[in-house]
Design a protein that fits this description.
The complex is a heterodimer of chains A (393) and B (565).
Chain A: H1 16-36, E1 40-41, H2 43-46, E2 48-59, H3 64-76, E3 82-88, E4 93-100, H4 110-128, E5 133-140, H5 142-170, H6 174-198, E6 201-202, H7 204-234, H8 240-272, H9 278-319, H10 374-389
Parallel strand pairs in A: 1-6
Antiparallel strand pairs in A: 2-4, 2-5, 3-4
Chain B: H1 3-24, E1 32-33, E2 40-41, E3 44-47, E4 50-53, H2 63-66, E5 68-75, E6 78-84, H3 94-107, H4 110-113, E7 118-123, E8 126-132, H5 139-151, E9 158-164, H6 169-186, E10 192-196, E11 200-206, H7 211-219, E12 224-228, E13 242-246, E14 249-255, E15 261-262, H8 264-270, E16 273-276, E17 285-287, E18 295-299, H9 303-314, E19 320-324, E20 327-330, E21 341-344, H10 353-366, E22 373-381, H11 383-436, H12 443-472, H13 477-509, H14 513-544
Helix pairs in contact in B: 1-11, 6-7, 6-10, 11-12, 11-14, 12-13, 12-14, 13-14
The chains are: A alpha+beta (393), B alpha+beta (565).
Chain lengths: 393, 565
């Protein structure tokens, strides 16, 4: 298999506003649906009853609406307040999910009420669909659903707090942490939007999926940032944007392959696994895609925007003759724009001085290397001396 | 091969074998029950001339996979009130006391008090009322309400006691014990019964044939009462209540002296309690002999023996009401003095009656619950659906696993293949670790295992991408491998901290199956650090000591790229 990303000279950083626009459009679409249709919360969060029936034979494709109609009619005759849905795997639909509203009158428990509903529904359904059987029944009372909601909220809050602290520890600078955070928020918004659009049910597993996605997305971003930080040490003459672009290209294969392997297994589960895991898996698939995208196209790009702003500020300060103290932290005092010049063949690239360092790691050629001026070189030397005293990462 | 490498290799192989033995338990060759049909299956299967031993899967499956019920019960709080009045302090004959009791029952209907259940008692010179404390009911208000109702009959009534009944962890423990007794006698294999403070019990029943019956059995308060039916409703042969059968169950019709029909509930309400379930020894049994009525025999204990003996001697031809949780089971007439043993006959001869008699006997022996229970959560999955879900997710897992193996081998060539070997070991070790910590494997747990297969190769991908770059710089294979693993390690470690951290958050706040997901994920990430880094590194190191190392193409790098950077 070839390396799809080897030697590509895409200018990912230059198009960052496009990537942001794509994210914003996707999120905005989701939010519009969220505003108009809302989310479809399952019984874990609303309380109530859920009864799953299994048909003796799978429902033929094209018969879904008709089957649902007959089932609705049958259950309608019992007076049970219910919402119906067909379920199954990607190819075989063999289950009927009935969500009932459970309101217990004085002196009766919710469990009694659901029991009555089930006893009423089974005979009429067996009449309409011979051989149908009850496969599952769930009751969640208001006491429990309230707790589940609270636990979900707490889980999300603690999860976010943990990740925030972790990023803060890992990256001293709020710019890095903030960029990683933007990516997380992006992932969660895309996920919520996807569920608003598809109107899939949101139950406790959704929260588990969201947290898993968030954890994995940070994991993805950290690997990318790690490379970026390493390259900052190696390519002191480049602007932050250039360094970021090269780091992105270098880690592109890894980022894509990582998401790809996870997607391979998730899609297998989505297509072949049972009905009970479908929404969970769907959430993971959407989240992993969003997470993979956001690490490359959001986290790193937001960081470039923030760093460029910082660089501009520093340049302006130097111009007014004030002391440039923060310079030690970041390498290059460069005035060039973030956008890269067209790619140069690798062989032409001038070797950088850092080559001399003993265990010199890998470098890709800086595309704009030959543009380097003598002045900037001298400046770099000065900076290196300062950096020895205070290295931030 | 270096001695150190050999030791590592041996250690890893032994570990994997141990994990495999732990998971599949090939040595456990006992017969087992098929979860779907409940039939006993022999582990030996004959395939042609061979006898194959089906290994036993050692990890406990969750209820969502093998079918069963997950139930959460909550104890209903109660309130106790005591009232005094001057009239109650006076001397009364038994007859008068009974009449007074009947009057009180009429004074305090449940609806007027605002509760689903109330219990009355005349204790010396006080009226004791126990109510089930419904949600949002204030004890003080309820006391005033009862006082107002009583004031119609006793103008000088006073509230002496008004408080919610204490609910302590001992109460919860006794509820747990009673439920455990019931479940064990019912015959459920491997039930799980847990207390959840302050007032909940979690019951998990795998593979019950009739979950509804089991649920009913667990929940019943099971207060057995032998009550004395007032003489005006039933006495001797001429005052015999009409007994009819509806669907095989006896139904009694009581009439007052004027011949007017009185609802059975009212009759029971007005009958004072003589003996309760607490006075029974846990030795009741079902007698079902050919040609005889099925009956449940019970035995009294303690001072109840004497009390009941005196009572039956003094009340010949009176009727008793045998009441279970407010429901009249039978109303026998007293013909002899009963000392120790009594029988309950309640139409147990109809179809299904024998099971009912058995359940009654279980309830009598396990004892009554000190508090009413209510199901606040109940999830029941049929064994077929569970097995179906298990097979489907295993199938999905298999194909996903295979896809990852193929992908790694194609994309990363030799190291990819070595990572594949490590990945197979990973799956075995992961299952072994799940078994080791005794984690139940739920459906989301299986998803986590499958998901973690996709995630586990991430470390390999980071390392191998790095390795390609290092090889391209023209380093020797040995130093390239060394550098790749060294540099990738930092990124791998701290990116995985995040996954583990969110896993712990999920574990802490998740319930049931979600916990299973979190545990599998945490263990998965931890184990993958070992297999994807340590094990793969060992393999790659072994590989580069062979002739293979000279062919960079095997590492996914074309020879002309080397040294060009």
């Amino acid at each position: 298999m070839v390396d799809l990303f080897r030697g590509r000279k895409w200018d990912l950083v230059g198009y960052r506003w496009l990537w942001f626009a794509i994210s914003l459009i996707v999120i905005a679409t989701g939010m519009v649906f969220l505003g108009t249709r809302g989310l479809n919360f399952g019984i874990d969060f609303t309380g109530g009853g859920l009864v799953t029936y299994r048909f003796s034979e799978p429902v033929a494709p094209g018969q879904h609406t008709q089957t649902l109609g007959r089932a609705r009619e049958a259950i309608g005759s019992t007076g049970v307040d219910a919402r119906l849905q067909l379920a199954g795997t990607a190819t075989v639909t063999d289950q009927l999910l009935v969500r009932t509203r459970v309101v217990a009158p004085q002196g009766k428990t919710d469990d009694d009420v659901l029991g009555e509903q089930r006893r009423a529904m089974l005979p009429v359904l067996s009449e309409a669909f011979p051989g149908i059987e009850e496969a599952e029944s769930q009751l969640v009372t208001a006491v429990v659903s309230e707790e589940l909601i609270w636990n979900a909220v707490k889980a999300v809050a603690w999860g976010c707090l943990f990740i925030l602290i972790w990023i803060r520890i890992r990256y001293f600078d709020f710019k890095w942490a903030g960029s990683a955070l933007v990516a997380l928020v992006h992932d969660v918004l895309v996920l919520v939007g996807a569920f608003a659009i598809t109107q899939r049910e949101i139950n406790s597993p959704f929260v588990a999926a969201a947290l898993t996605v968030v954890g994995y997305s940070v994991h993805d971003t950290i690997v990318l940032f790690d490379r970026l930080r390493e390259n900052m040490r190696l390519r002191k003459g480049d602007t932050f944007g250039e360094t970021a672009n090269i780091s992105l290209l270098e880690t592109m294969a890894r980022s894509v392959n990582t998401v790809l392997t996870v997607l391979l297994v998730l899609v297998a589960v989505y297509l072949l696994g049972g009905a009970s895991l479908r929404d969970f898996t769907f959430a993971l698939i959407v989240g992993m895609l969003a997470g993979g995208y956001s690490s490359i196209f959001n986290a790193a790009q937001v960081l470039v925007v923030l760093k460029n702003r910082e660089e501009r500020k520093l340049t302006a300060r130097r111009a007014t003759g004030r002391p440039v103290r923060q310079m030690a932290e970041r390498a290059a005092p460069v005035r060039r724009p973030a956008r890269l010049t067209p790619a140069q063949p690798a062989a032409e690239a001038a070797p950088t001085e850092e080559r001399q360092e003993a265990d010199s790691p890998v470098e890709s050629p800086p595309p704009a290397a030959q543009k380097r001026t003598r002045a900037s070189r001298a400046e770099r030397k000065k900076l290196r001396a300062g950096r020895k005293r205070k290295r931030r990462f | 091969m270096q001695a150190r490498t050999r030791w590592w290799l041996t250690g890893i192989i032994v570990l994997v074998i141990l994990a495999a033995l732990g998971v599949f338990e090939p040595l456990k060759l006992r017969d087992r029950r098929d979860p779907a049909t409940g039939e006993v299956v022999s582990p030996v299967r004959e395939v042609g001339p061979f006898k194959l031993y089906r290994p036993h899967f050692g990890i406990t499956l969750g209820l969502d996979l093998r079918g069963g019920s997950h139930l959460v019960l909550q104890a209903q709080r109660q309130a106790v009130y005591e009232f005094s009045a001057a009239e109650l302090a006076q001397e009364m004959s038994e007859e008068e006391r009974n009449d007074l009791y009947g009057e009180l029952v009429g004074l305090l209907p449940t609806e007027a008090i605002g509760t689903g259940k109330r219990e009355l008692q005349l204790v010396d010179d006080r009226i004791r009322v126990r109510t089930r404390l419904e949600e949002g009911v204030d004890v003080g208000e309820q006391a005033e309400k009862i006082k107002a109702l009583l004031a119609e009959r006793f103008p000088d009534v006073e509230i002496k006691v008004a408080k919610p009944e204490d609910f302590t962890s001992e109460h919860l423990a006794s509820i747990e014990r009673i439920i455990e007794n019931r479940v064990n006698q019912y015959g459920v294999t491997e039930p799980i019964i847990q207390r959840q403070l302050p007032d909940r019990i979690i019951v998990e029943l795998p593979g019950v044939k009739d979950p509804e019956a089991a649920k009913e059995l667990i929940r019943q308060t099971a207060v057995l009462q032998l009550r004395h039916i007032p003489r005006k409703y039933a006495f001797g042969d001429e005052g015999r209540p009409e007994e009819t059968e509806v669907a095989g169950e006896p139904v009694y019709t009581f009439r007052d002296p004027t011949g007017k029909e009185v609802p059975t509930e009212q009759v029971i309400d007005e009958s004072p309690v003589i003996v309760t379930g607490k006075d029974l020894r846990p030795t009741s049994r079902v007698d079902s002999l050919a040609g005889q009525q099925t009956q449940v025999t019970f035995e009294l204990q303690g001072d109840a023996i004497k009390r009941f003996e005196d009572f039956t001697r003094a009340h010949q031809n009176h009727y008793l009401a045998i009441v279970m949780d407010g429901k009249l089971i039978s109303a026998p007439v007293i013909r002899a003095t009963i000392r120790r043993e009594g029988v309950i006959e309640g139409g147990f001869d109809r179809p299904g009656g024998l099971e009912e008699a058995r359940d009654l006997s279980i309830l009598l022996n396990a004892g009554a619950l000190p508090f009413d229970l209510e199901y606040i959560e109940s999830r029941t999955v049929s064994a077929q659906l569970g097995q179906d879900a298990l097979l489907k997710s295993l199938k999905a897992g298999f194909w996903g696993f295979l896809a990852v193996l193929v992908f790694m081998a194609l994309y990363y060539r030799l190291p990819g293949l070595l990572a594949d070997v490590a990945l197979v070991m990973y799956v075995i070790l992961l299952l072994g670790a799940i078994k080791l910590v005794n984690q139940v494997l739920t459906l989301p747990g299986i998803l986590a295992v499958i998901l973690s297969i996709g995630m586990a190769v991430d470390a390999n991908i980071i390392i191998f991408e790095r390795l390609k770059e290092e090889i391209r710089t023209g380093k020797t294979m040995r130093s390239a491998v060394e550098a790749a693993f060294k540099r990738a390690w930092a990124a791998i470690l701290d990116s995985n901290v995040c996954s583990i951290g969110t896993g712990f958050v999920l574990f802490y706040f998740g319930t049931g199956p979600i916990k299973g997901f979190a545990v599998a994920l945490i263990i998965g990430v931890a184990v993958s650090l070992f297999t994807a880094v340590t094990v793969t590194r060992l393999f790659v190191n072994m590989a580069i000591n062979t002739a293979l190392a000279r062919k960079v193409a095997l590492f996914g790098v074309s020879p002309e790229e080397v040294g060009q950077v």
